[in-house]
Amino acid sequence: MACPVQFLCRAVRTVGLVLVYYVFSIGITFYNKWLMKGFHYPLFMTLLHLTIIFCLSTLTRSAMQCWTGKPRVMLNWTDYLTKVAPVAIATALDIGLSNWSFLFITISLYTMTKSSAVLFILFFSLVFKLEHPNPYLIVVVLLIASGLFMFTFKSTQFNLKGFIMVLLASFIGGIRWTLTQVLMQKAELGLQNPIDTMYHLQPLMFMGLFPLFLFNEGLSLSTSEKLFRVNELSPLLYTLVMLSIGGSLAFGLGFSEFLLVSKTSSLTLSIAGIFKEACTLLLAAGLMGDRMSGLNLMGFAVCVSGISLHVGLKTYYSKSKFIPLLYVLPVKNSQDLEVPLLCHKEDEGEETAADDDDDDDDKEQEILL
Fold first, then answer.
1. 157-172: pLDDT as tens digits
2. Quick count: other Cβ atoms within 10 Å of Cβ 156?
3. Where are the membrane-spanning stretches (predicted)?
C-alpha cells in the first residue's frame, strides 16, 4: 500500500498535468476563435501550425537523442505511406475542418458538436472490430445524440454551415482516432512515443490539407493585404507572431494529452475531458457572450451523462478480470496487438521499482479513444 507521501505526490502530479492540459486545450479553442475574427484563413493557419509542430517535434527528438544517446525511430517509405498516411490525412481534415468552422459558429456549439466524436469513434471501433457489440453502447449513443439535438434545437446562434463542418470533423475524427489506435499499437513501427508520432504525421498532414487550402484560400490569400500584399512590415510580423503562438499551443496540446495518459491513464484524460467541456461552455458564456437556453443546458447535461456512462463502462471493463469488450484489440496470434498506446513510466529514480500499487495503474493504460 502506498504511503501518504507517495499518494500525495501522485495526486499533485495528476492535478498539475490536468491543469496543463486544460490550459492548452481551452486556450487554443478560444485563441483560434479570437484569431478567426480578423484572420479569415483557417486552412492556412492550420498548415502553419503543422509546420511549427513538425519543427518543434524535430528539435525535441534531437534533444532526446542527445540526452539518451539512442537513435530515434525512422520509418521506411513503405510503412510511412501505407500505415501512417491514412492517419495523417484523417487528422489533417479533422483539425482543418474544426478550425474552419470557427468562422461560422460559437465556441459553445463547437464544443457540444465535437462531443459527438465519441459516437463515431464507437462506430468505427465496431467496423474495424476493435470493439465488440455491447448493449450499453446503444444507451451511450442515444444520450449523446439526443443531448446534441436538444442543444442545437432552436438555438439562437445556430449556423448550419459551421455545424455541418464540425459534425464532419467529428466523423473524420472517429476514423482518425481508430486508425491512430491501430498505428500506435504496432510494436514493430516503434511509434509509441508521442514525439515520434507527431514528427512522422506532420509532413503527410501538410500535404493532405494543402490541396484543400489551394482550392479554397489560395487565390484569396495571395491577394490579401494581411500577408502577400502587405504594405508595412509590422502588420506582417504581427500576423506571423499571432499564428506562431497558435502553433505552439497546438504542439503543447498534443504533447500534454499524451503526457497525461502516460503518467496517469486514458481514464484520467476522459474524465478530465468532461469537466473541460463544462469549463469551456461556462467561459464561452462569460467571455464570448454565447447564449444558451434552458433546453440547450438540458441537452448539455444529457450529453455529459452519455459521455460519463461511456467513461464508466471504460472503468468497469478496465478492472474486469475477463477480456474487456471495450478499448482492447482482439488478439489474433500477433503480439503487436497487445502493446498499449503509452506505457506507464515513472521517473528515472523509480525505473527499477516494482511496487504492487503500480499494477492497478498499469491496468488502466488502455487505448485512448
1. 678 888 888 889 888 8
2. 10
3. 12-32, 38-59, 80-97, 103-128, 135-153, 159-179, 199-216, 236-255, 267-288, 294-313
Q: Are 179 and 90 in contact (CB under 8 A)?
A: yes
Maximum distance among all alpha carbons in the chain? 67
The answer to whether the CB of 55 falls within 8 A of the CB of 244 is no
Cell 479553442, residue located: 29
Q: Domains of the chain: which residue ranges? A: 16-342
Provide the 8-state DSSP code for 3.
-
Condensed to tens digits (0 to 9), the pLDDT of residues 257-273 reads: 777 766 665 556 666 77
Residues 276 and 270 sit within 8 Å (Cβ to Cβ): no
Cα torsion 72, 248, 347, 336: sign: negative
Grid cell 489474433 in the structure block, residue: 332
| Full-model pTM | 0.71
Nearest to 203 by CA among 307, 338, 74, 331: 74
Q: All 3 cell numbers of residue 297?
A: 443546458
Q: Is the pLDDT of residue 253 over 50?
A: yes
* Residue of 97, 216, 113, 120 lying closest to 158 (CA atoms): 113
